[in-house]
Amino acid sequence: MRGAGLTNTELIQVARGVGYEPGHVGWTPTGHDARYHFGQLRTILFILRALGYPGMLVLCDEMIALVELGARSRDKAYRVLDALFFNDYQYQGLYAVFAYEPSFFSQLQADRDRLGAEFVARWRELLGDRIRWVEPLTADEMIELFGRLARLHGVARGWAAWDRVEADGQRLVALCQRRRSSIRDLVRNSVVLLEQRYAEQEAARNPRDRT
Fold it and tell me: What is each CA distance from 199 to 32, 78, 86, 128, 194, in whole angstroms?
């Protein structure tokens, strides 16, 4: 998760302000203590519902990173995901979206002997028709994506980004297609390009700032 940091003390104070007592933690949690950190998420969900929101959508991205872990670490990650899939933490109002690549399920199948056939079958039964395959973007769709990123960057930085980088964007998309780059790489390279062009424009406007 990214965003402004929130300490557990601050979270407890907010929770108590809406009538929820998170309870006492009698140990020092580590960065890998799933029960503690997902308990924090349950507290956040309660706060949101108390404020009138129906819940929260959480995007669990970079699931492909699990494939790169060692066997023991993968097994632990599978168990954490299993607890999320089957709501062991008793969340109310959580809508979780998991982004992955086909190799994720290939690795899951390869780990079947350690996890057990029942474990793998339970996952496949749960996911079933909930899986949504994302088709590769066409050139026009990639240009549209770049355009949206440019306009967002323009709003954030306060400059006419699209007018400045439209031709660059078309060249970038063509390059990504030749290299068969992922959409992730297109987005990353687009942001780098936008930052570069913005910096060049600012340097041209303020020549005295050059060293």
Answer: 39, 43, 47, 47, 9
pTM, 2 dp: 0.57
Mean pLDDT, the chain cut into blocks of 10 residues (211 residues total): 58 72 58 77 88 90 83 90 88 87 82 87 81 85 96 95 95 94 90 96 77 51
Strands 94-98 and 56-60: parallel
Q: Is 67 left (phi over 0), alpha (psi -120 to 50) or beta?
A: alpha
Instruction: Give the count of alpha carbons within 13 A of 92, CB side only.
Output: 8
CB 40 within 8 A of CB 14: no
Res 100: pLDDT:
78
The model's pLDDT over 77-87, given as tens digits with 9 standing for 90+, comes to 898 889 888 89
Q: Is the Cβ–Cβ distance between 197 and 164 less than 8 Å?
A: yes
Contact between 63 and 100 (Cβ < 8 Å): yes
- Residue 9's pLDDT is 73
Nearest CA-CA partner of 76 in 42, 39, 32, 107: 32
Q: How far apart are CA 183 and CA 145, in angstroms?
A: 9
